[in-house]
Design goal:
Blueprint lengths: L4 E7 L2 E8 L4 E5 L10 H8 L4 E5 L18 H15 L4 E6 L1 H12 L4 E7 L12 H9 L4 H4 L5 H9 L1 H10 L30 H14 L2 H8 L1 H7 L12 E6 L10 H6 L2 H5 L3 E7 L6 H4 L1 H12 L3
Helix pairs in contact: 1-14, 2-3, 7-8
Keywords: Hydrolase
Catalytic activity: (24S)-24,25-epoxycucurbitadienol + H2O = (24R)-24,25-dihydroxycucurbitadienol; an epoxide + H2O = an ethanediol
GO molecular function: epoxide hydrolase activity
Length: 317
């Protein structure tokens, strides 16, 4: 990726890899699962060419960033702590925040804990979901979606890692990245990823063999445990965030999602976003964009449009 530079920085007691390009106000990009800084390759080039300093880390546990062994080291306080240290390292008071999938959830936590450090937030795919003080999230998800719901299946250390190993790293990544099945996503005990060697997946135009190879190589080197530990800390996050129960998010927000997104098509989410629930908890929500015919990995599938959505929003500030 032409002109994108890389460095390792010490943040919050770990070594973090960041990819960056450009000069100007900082746009901080947070990736999701199972992704890397590389998910933002198109936006890094686009925003850096428009007068911004685009910065995309590999989050804790991913890619070339350090991966502590214990899942208790992956709480929202740890991850937000990493990001505050990174923002301090970059020498700026505030950043424009752009985030997707797990990165989006971490983005909401960053806005909740430290709204003073975020000038505006462009959130992709995952809306803010307020804490339910009456029930831990894993128990709640099992009740609503069943034991096979993917976040429930990710809980037991080593189990899903073994299933990924059996199915093949590249094949699993290809299946997840190209998936367009409506939510809620489930992983049955038999052939959880639905991979059939006699029915190979054809890559869409927005994901090349070289792209897939980049992801697969990094995940073969690193493994999936770091990323899965974000899910394994869900109940811990619930415990740690009790003081923020009912707290509004006081950051300007633009929310963008595809109408085929597995999160958006999970029962209740569409209604929450369009029916005023999201606006109630995020009072400075300024815009909601639902892109037709677009799946979950929106920043890669519709790279140019997402870059334009980002620039149109942050250029107002």
């Amino acid at each position: 990726m032409e002109g994108i530079s890389h460095r390792m920085v010490k943040v919050n007691g770990i070594d973090m890899h960041i990819a960056e390009k450009g000069r100007g106000p900082v746009v901080l990009f947070l990736h999701g699962f199972p992704e890397l800084w590389y998910s933002w390759r198109h936006q890094i080039l686009a925003l850096s060419s428009l007068g911004y300093h685009a910065v995309a880390p590999d989050l804790r546990g991913y890619g070339d960033t350090e991966a502590p062994a214990s899942s208790s080291s992956y709480s929202c306080l740890h991850i937000v702590g990493d990001l505050i240290a990174l923002i301090d390292y970059l020498g700026v008071e505030q950043v424009f925040l752009v985030a997707h999938d797990w990165g989006a959830q971490i983005g909401w936590y960053l806005c909740l804990f430290r709204p003073d450090r975020v000038k505006a937030y462009i959130c992709l795919s995952v809306p803010y979901m307020p804490r339910n003080p009456k029930m831990k999230p894993v128990e709640s998800m099992k009740l609503v979606f069943g034991e096979d719901y993917y976040m429930c299946r990710f809980q037991e250390p080593g189990v899903i890692e073994e299933e990924i190993s059996r199915a093949g790293t590249a094949e699993v990544l290809k299946k997840i990245l190209t998936g367009r099945k409506p939510g809620p996503p489930r992983l049955p005990k038999e052939n959880p990823f639905g991979i059939y060697p006699d029915n190979p997946i054809t890559l869409p135009s927005w994901l090349t063999e070289a792209d897939l190879s980049f992801y697969a190589t990094k995940y073969r080197q690193k493994g999936f445990t770091g990323g899965l530990n974000f899910y394994r800390a869900l109940d811990l996050n619930w415990e740690l965030t009790a003081p923020w129960t009912g707290a509004p998010l006081k950051v300007p927000v633009k929310f963008v999602v595809g109408d085929l997104d597995m999160v958006y098509t999970t029962p209740g989410i569409k209604e929450f976003v369009s029916g005023g629930g999201l606006k109630h908890h995020v009072p400075f929500l300024e815009e909601v964009v639902v892109m037709e015919g677009v799946g979950h990995f929106i920043n890669q599938e519709k790279a140019e449009e997402i870059s334009n959505h980002i620039y149109d929003y942050i250029s107002k500030y």
